[in-house]
Specification:
The protein has about 240 residues and is α+β, with helices and mostly antiparallel strands. The chain folds into 2 domains: about 15-120, NADH Oxidase, CATH 3.40.109.10; about 130-235, putative nitroreductase (tm1586), domain 2 (NADH Oxidase), CATH 3.40.109. It is built from 6 helices and 8 strands. The strands form 2 sheets. The protein has a 4-stranded antiparallel sheet with strand order 1-2-4-3, covered by helices on one side. A 4-stranded antiparallel sheet has the order 5-6-8-7. Strand 5 and strand 6 (about 175-180) form a beta hairpin. Helix 3 crosses helix 6. The longest helix is centred in the N-terminal third of the chain and has 20 residues, at about 65-85.
Length: about 240
């Protein structure tokens, strides 16, 4: 079960692009390190690494460059993003951030993305949900009965705000699919698009749990029918 406090943060969080030009204090550094502890993986057997650099104010994410490896990393880092929002930090998914030269990971782990964290020079929260630019619920999941639970997934952040997720309910299974991108987006976004699915799954699980659903597990077995133009990521069992 994910931290239920994260649910309310989803509806007011925003990416921060303006930061104070000051280093993190010892207390702030410790708060960031604390946010990296006790994370719940999407796929427990997946290998990953999160490296925090207080000097560069970045959390660097490494994983295997596979669909589930990238999704798992996105799932984990979104928990960090929400925890740091709750602690008052500015945060920004930094997809174009360079891999630190002083941190090298042994294959199969490779650099995927980083999360900037620092002292915000602008408000860290939105005033209303209307400030989000997101798809309607009917373009997120096919079952209207689950629209309230998937409002959280609808508001998930994504690279270039392409919102690649599509969920389909099949009884007690909810399959998550990623829309394949065109050539330009695919070149610009790359593996971040798969990480976005982990972010959306994090929000989806928080929304389902908030609505009283019990998450029985996460499966990685694609259904026979995959929507055209999409790639299977995972299945939530409820």
């Amino acid at each position: 079960m994910l931290n239920p406090d994260f649910y309310d943060y989803i509806f007011v969080r925003k990416s921060i692009r303006k930061y104070e030009d000051e280093p993190l204090s010892a207390g702030q550094t410790e708060s960031v390190r604390s946010a990296l502890e006790g994370l719940v993986p999407l796929f427990p057997d997946e290998k990953y690494s999160l490296e925090f650099s207080p000097e560069k104010q970045r959390i660097y994410g490494y994983c295997e460059n596979t669909v589930i490896g990238n999704a798992n990393l996105g799932f984990l880092l979104q928990q960090v993003d929400l925890a740091l929002f709750g602690a008052g930090f500015g945060r920004l998914w930094f997809g174009m951030g360079r891999e630190p030269r002083d941190v090298k990971k042994t294959p199969p782990l490779s650099y995927a993305i980083c999360l900037k964290v620092g002292v915000a020079a602008e408000p860290v929260a939105r005033e209303t949900v209307a400030e989000f630019s997101r798809k309607p619920a009917c373009e997120v999941i096919d079952d209207s009965a689950l629209w309230p639970a998937f409002e959280a997934a609808r508001l998930a952040p994504s690279a270039r705000n392409v919102q690649p997720w599509w969920f389909q309910r099949d009884g007690e299974s909810i399959h998550a699919f990623r829309k394949k991108q065109g050539l330009i987006n695919a070149a610009l976004i790359g593996r971040m698009n798969q990480g976005d699915m982990g972010i959306a799954l994090c929000h989806a699980i928080l929304g389902l749990e908030h609505e009283g659903f019990v998450i029985k597990g996460i499966a990685n077995s694609a259904p026979e029918a995959v929507p055209g133009g999409h790639e299977y990521t995972a299945t939530i069992l409820i």
